[in-house]
Amino acid sequence: MKNIDYRYRLADPELGSSEMEYLSKCIGEGMISSQGRFVHQFETEFSAACGAEYGVAVANGTCALHLALEALGVGPGDEVIVPSLTFIATANTVTHAGATPLFADVDPDTLCISPDTIEPWVSPKTKAIIPVHLLGQPCNMPEICRFAKQRGLHVIEDAAEAHGAEVNGQRVGSFGEINCFSFYANKIITTGEGGMCTTNDAALADRMRLLRGHGMDPNRRYWHSVIGYNYRMTNLQAAVGLAQLPCLDTWIEKRRWIYSRYRELLGYLGNLLYFLEEPQGTRSACWMSTLMLKDPNCRDKLLDLVGLAGVMVLVEPWREEAGRGRGAGQARRSQGPRMALRSSRHLPSKTLSKRPWSKFPLGFL
Q1: CA–CA separation, 340 vs 246, rounded Å?
Q2: CA spacing 20 to 30 A to 159: which of 38, 82, 184, 200?
Q3: From CA 255, how far away is CA 124, in angstroms rounded?
Q4: Where does 248-357 sit in CATH, by number?
Q5: Is the pLDDT of residue 365 over 70?
Q6: pLDDT of residue 297
C-alpha cells in the first residue's frame, strides 16, 4: 500500500450560509443552550420528514439509543438482539441499560439483520430488537416488525447512518416504536454532535423528554419524579440541523449518483469485487458507497487505485466480534472485507470521470 495524500476525505460536513444565518440568530437572541426555539422546530420538522408524529432531540446518537431502551423499560435480566455488524454504540447502550446484547448475524446480501437471522436468538428473556440500517441500506422493516409483534418484542430502529432511506416508500424512522438517529459530523445531516428519537407514541415521547432532562417534572420545576439524564440538544446544534433539513433529498440523490458512478468505474474488476444490490422495495440513502471484495488479497492494490484518484476509503476487515453477550465471536464469516468509498456531494464530478480511473489495465490487480 502506498502513502497517498487524499484530496477527498471519507466524509465532510455540508455547511453553508443557511447554517451561519441560523447560528447568528441563536447568538443574537442569546439562546445557545437547550431552551431555544430551534430545538422544538427541528424536532417537529425532522420527525415529519421521517413520517413520525414526535421527535425528541438529544445530545448524540448513543444517547438516543440509550434513551429509547430506558423509555421502553429495558433493564437487568433482559436480552436485546442487535446485529453482529454495527458500530459499537448499538451494543454498548444495551449494556448501559443493564441488559445483555445478543449478536445476530447479518444477511450477506444487505449487511442487515432479518427475521431469519434474528430467530435463533429469541428466548424468554428477549425484550427488544435493534435493526441497524447499515451504511444507509434499510432493513426489511415490515417483516421485522411483523416478526417482533408476533413475539411481543419491542423494535428500536438504529437509523444513525440512513437519514431518508425508504422501505416500500416509507421512510426509516417511522417503523419502530422508537427510532434513533445520529447527527455526527460525518452523517448526511449533521449538527456537529447530536441525535434524535422519533416515535408515533405520545406517551413514549413524553417519557423520553422527562428522562432527557434530569427527570424534572415539566409542570413542577426542580421536582424530579424519576432519575433522569442530561441528554439535551443545544439550540445551536438544532439550528444547524434545521438549516440542513431542506437539502436532505438533494443530498441523497447526489450520493446515489456517486454510488452508481463507482459501480461504472470499477465494473471492469467484477472478478475481484462487487457492489451491494438494493433489495426490491428498498431505497438506500447511500451514506457510504459500499463494495465487497471477493479476494481479500487484492485489498491494498485496490486502495492504491482508488487513492490515486484522491478518494479516501474506509476498510472493514473480516469480522472479529468481541465483547460480552451471547453470540459475541460466533457470527459466521460469510463475507470478505468491505470497503466504503466517499459519497459526499463535495466530491467533484471530474474525480468520477473515467480519466483518473482508466490508468489501470485489466491486469492491474
Answers
A1: 26
A2: 38
A3: 42
A4: 3.90.1150.10
A5: no
A6: 78
